[in-house]
Every structure is written in C-alpha cells, then in structure tokens.
C-alpha cells in the first residue's frame, strides 16, 4: 500500500486506487488485472490497472491491492419486508401452499409494537449488511411509527404498501401520503386480491406523477390467478372472513398480467414481484410495456414448490432483479444465496446474467440506475471485494465464483460514507 496521496483536480479529497485480479463492473465485460479509482464517496475511474495507475499513481495516489479477489458492485435486494425479520420460521419439509402459509404468518407475526418493529428491522438490516447488500427495496406497512430513519448501511428504498380490497380511493387507504411533497416514498399495491383495482390505478398514477417506482406482487401463486380470472377460491374466502369483500367487484376473466395491462399500470417504472404463473403472452406484454420483474425463487419454493420461468424473461430482454422476500418465506436475507439458488435451479442461465440481476438489475428496479449497481465513473460507493478461491477462466466463471463466495459470506466492504 502506497502511503503517498494524490488529489483529483478540483477536489480536496485524495484518490485511492483499488487493484485486483478481476473487476466485474456490471456494465461492459469483466476486466482482468483491473482497478477502480475512487475519490471521496464516488468512483472516478475503472479500467485496466496499468491505465488507472498511470493516470493517478504518478501523483502518489494511495494504492490498495486486493489479491486473489474480484471487485464487484454491492448487491441490491429489490424486494423484501424487513418488518418480518424477527420471525424464526423453519422451512417446511413440504410446501404448504399459499392458504396454509398465510395463516401461519398471521399467527407468527401478530401485532408488532413500534419497538418490536424497530428491533426486527434492525436485525434484518444487520443481516443484509453483513452479506454484502447495499440497498434494500423494503415494503413497509402503515402506521410507520416503528420505521426509524437509519442512515447506515444498507440504504433503504421504502415502498409504502397499499392494502384494502374494498377501498375506493387511495386517500381512504393512505390518508396522509408518505414523505410529503418534498421527498415522497414509492408505493407498493399489495396485489390484485389485496388491493382494490381502482386504488391500484390511483397508486400508480400517484407514483407516475412523482416519477417514482411502483411495485406489486403479481402472479405469485395459483390462488391469485384463479381469483383474478374467475373470482373464486381461497382469496375470495379470505377477503370474506376478514370483512374486506367487495360485492360489486367482478373478475377480469384473464391473467394477472393482462389485468394489470388493462388497468394501465405497466410501464418501465413498474416492478412486478414474483411472476411465477405467467404464460408466453404475459411475458410478451411485460416486455412490450418495459416493466421490470423481481424474482424471489427461494420464497416461491418455500410456499408453493414452484419456480418462475426466469429464462423466458431473460430471452425477451425484460429488466430483471432478484429479491429475497422476507423471513416469513426464506431462510435468510443473503442475496448472494438467492443468486446461488438461481445458478442451481437454472443451469441454462449464465452466471454473469445472474450477477447483473443482483446488482444493475436491482438498481434499475428501484430507480437507482446510474449511481448504484455498477462500477463506473460517477457511481457511488461502497462496493465489494470478494475472494475468488481460484483463477476464473472466463467472465461466467468469475461471476459464479463471486456468487458462490458471497453466498458463504465471504467479502469485504470497500470505502464510501455509510450515509446517503
């Protein structure tokens, strides 16, 4: 490590050069014998180590060598529910199905006090930070009295969940829209069975007007698709038991994706979460509208034992991200383990594609593209150094090594302020 310091022109901050056998920038090909130069809390240069050192090293930039490691963007978990992080549910031997699962969650969660909610959220945040996640797409439920603003890692893109199948207006569900006019939060309609379709339209219109992302669980389980198409089954029974049934409502007679298209809510700022029960026409609609998809395959296996057709989305160049969902349907919040599960279940999907889903894909899904999910000039810090445990021969070998090592908690944070 060189103890001398260089300063970027016009900046009082010294330049630090991080050099490694591999750099996985997230955009463009992987770089062998690469380096990332940083100044303050932003990246200023990425490239071959000889070029970066030549540009900044002559002024005495601090040089850090990360031997046998790869430099990679930190993970971005595009969908979770931190409020459930206090649950300690064991993975069932057999998938319970949605009906049994949802009642087990009702029983386990109960009514959390604000202090219990803060404790659960702190536990989930700590787990995410310890496993290389820099941003969480977190769905929160009003009231928000247990949701403290924390400026340490990981950062949170909070989606306020909109619930109420019998509601008529967004104001009825959220009398005080979150964040005020200065910094509004994104909204997440729960689903086509948990939120009235009029309110889904209004929530999307509100986020569109504020240029914010909009999220919704879509085509997650068979009960949902049956309800949307025919208006029957467990979802209707559940709404009736909860006193939230709307007798004037009528089913669409088609799939959840087609229904969302008819509601006018599909566009590049819409994040469709799960997308398990989806046919080719649904995928074509999603691609045509430019919507993003967040896959949570371990959650789907836990609840229903069914996997989404990730290859279909990739083949159509649909923007894809990964999420862990919550501790109510997953063993942990380690996004690298989610990526490893994709590698195991989808041998035809290239590891480099999976790693980009975990980084750049998450940034796109949460509206953070440009600053996060990549190693590029202008991008924010921190990022990760992940030990490789070998010598990758290709970009896909490199990506798989990063994912596998990260899934075992092997990696170190590099630089950056722990506030945003």
Automatic annotation (TrEMBL):
Gene3D superfamilies: Metal-dependent hydrolases (3.20.20.140). The keyword Hydrolase applies. It holds the Pfam family Amidohydro_1. GO terms for molecular function: hydrolase activity, acting on carbon-nitrogen (but not peptide) bonds. Transmembrane segments: none annotated. It comes from the Bacteria. Residues 187-381 form the Amidohydrolase-related domain. Keywords: Hydrolase. InterPro entries: Amidohydro-rel, Metal-dep_hydrolase_composite, Metal_Hydrolase, MTA/SAH_deaminase. This is Amidohydrolase-related domain-containing protein.
């Amino acid at each position: 490590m060189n103890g001398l310091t260089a300063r970027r022109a016009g900046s009082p901050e010294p330049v630090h050069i991080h050099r490694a056998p591999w750099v996985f920038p997230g955009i463009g090909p992987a770089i062998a014998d690469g380096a990332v130069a940083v100044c303050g809390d932003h990246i200023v240069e990425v490239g071959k180590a000889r070029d970066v050192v030549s540009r900044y090293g002559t002024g005495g930039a601090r040089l850090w060598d990360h031997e046998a490691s790869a430099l990679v963007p930190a993970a971005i978990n595009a969908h979770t529910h931190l409020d459930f992080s206090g649950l300690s549910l064991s993975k069932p031997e057999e998938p319970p199905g949605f009906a049994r699962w949802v009642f087990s969650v009702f029983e386990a969660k109960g009514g959390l006090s604000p202090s219990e909610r803060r404790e659960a959220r702190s536990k989930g945040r700590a787990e995410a930070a310890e496993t290389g996640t820099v941003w969480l797409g977190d769905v929160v439920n009003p009231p928000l009295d247990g949701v403290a603003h924390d400026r340490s890692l990981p950062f949170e893109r909070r989606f306020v969940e909109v619930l109420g199948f019998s509601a008529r207006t967004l104001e009825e569900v959220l009398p005080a829209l979150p964040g005020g006019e200065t910094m509004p939060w994104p909204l997440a309609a729960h689903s086509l069975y948990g939120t009235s379709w009029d309110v889904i339209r209004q929530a999307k219109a509100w986020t569109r007007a504020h240029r914010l992302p909009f999220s919704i669980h879509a085509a997650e389980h068979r009960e949902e698709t049956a309800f949307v198409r025919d208006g029957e089954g467990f979802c209707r029974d559940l709404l009736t038991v909860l006193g939230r049934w709307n007798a004037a409502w009528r089913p669409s007679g088609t799939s959840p994706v087609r229904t969302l298209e008819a509601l006018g809510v599909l566009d590049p700022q819409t994040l469709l979460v799960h997308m398990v029960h989806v046919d080719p026409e649904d995928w074509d609609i999603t691609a045509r509208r430019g919507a993003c998809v967040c896959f949570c395959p371990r959650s789907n296996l836990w609840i229903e034992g069914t996997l989404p057709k990730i290859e279909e989305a990739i083949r159509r160049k649909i923007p894809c991200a990964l999420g862990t969902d919550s501790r109510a349907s997953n063993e942990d919040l380690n996004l690298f383990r989610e990526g490893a599960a994709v590698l195991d279940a989808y041998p035809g999907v290239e590891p480099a594609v999976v790693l980009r889903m975990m980084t750049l894909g998450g940034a796109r899904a949460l509206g953070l593209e440009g600053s996060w999910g990549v190693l590029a000039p202008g991008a924010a810090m921190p990022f990760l150094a992940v030990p490789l445990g070998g010598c990758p021969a290709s970009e896909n070998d490199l990506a798989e090594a990063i994912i596998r090592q990260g899934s075992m908690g092997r990696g170190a944070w590099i630089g950056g302020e722990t506030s945003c």
